[in-house]
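Hi everyone, sorry if this is the wrong subforum. Our group has a chain we'd like a structural model of before ordering constructs, and none of us has done structure prediction before. Sequence below.
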Amino acid sequence: MGARSVEDAHNAVLATAKELLAKGLVEGTAGNVSARMPDGNICITPSSVDYRTMALEDLVVIDTSGEVVTGTRAPSSEKSLHLACYEAFEEVGSVIHSHPVHATVFAVARLPIPACIDEFTVYVGGEVAVTEYAPSGTHDVGKAAVACLADRGAALLANHGMVAVGKDPADVLHVTACVERTAEIVLGAIALGGAVPLPEKVNRNFKGVYEYLRNN
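Answer:
Right subforum, don't worry. Here is the predicted structure as C-alpha cells:
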C-alpha cells in the first residue's frame, strides 16, 4: 500500500481549519492544517491568514521538500513539522498543529496527559507524551514530534501546543478535540485528588484498537 492520501484535500483542509477555530482549539492565525494529496504533494494552510476569512484560494500546495507548487501565499511557518510527519508515517494522511488551552497547560508544565478514559486510548493510542523542546518553525520541532508519534495519534510540543496525525483532516480534528477534552478532565481530576489511569490490560487492549484504526 502506498502513502495514505486525501481526496478533495483543499475542501477538507479548509473546512477543518474553520472548525478548529470554531471549537476554540486555535486563536487568531495560530495553528495549521494539512493533508497529503493523491499526487504526493501537501495542501496546507497559509501563514498569517485569519481562519474566519480564509478561502480555498488562500491554501498552498507544497512538495515534499517544502517548495511551493501552487498558491500565492506563503505556507505555514510550521511546514517542516507537517513534512516530517508525512515522511515518517505512510499511514498518515493529515496533520494538525493546534494550541488548545488545557493540552497546552500540560505542554508548558512538560507533563504527559495520562490515559484514564477509554475513548482516549481508542482514538489516541494511550498516554500523550511531551516532546523535547525545539524552537517554533524549526526542523527540530518535526524531529521531536516524530519521536513521540510512532504509536500515538498526538504529541504535546514542549512550551508550545500539540500536534495530531491521522487518516484525514476530520479524523485528526477528532483526535485533537479528544486530547483537549481529556486534558481538561484530567486537570479537574487532579484538583479532586488525582487522575486514576486505566488498568494496564485495558489500556493495552484499547491501544490495539487504535493501531488497527490507524493502519486501516
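For your construct planning: The two ends are 11 Å apart (CA to CA). The mean pLDDT is 96.
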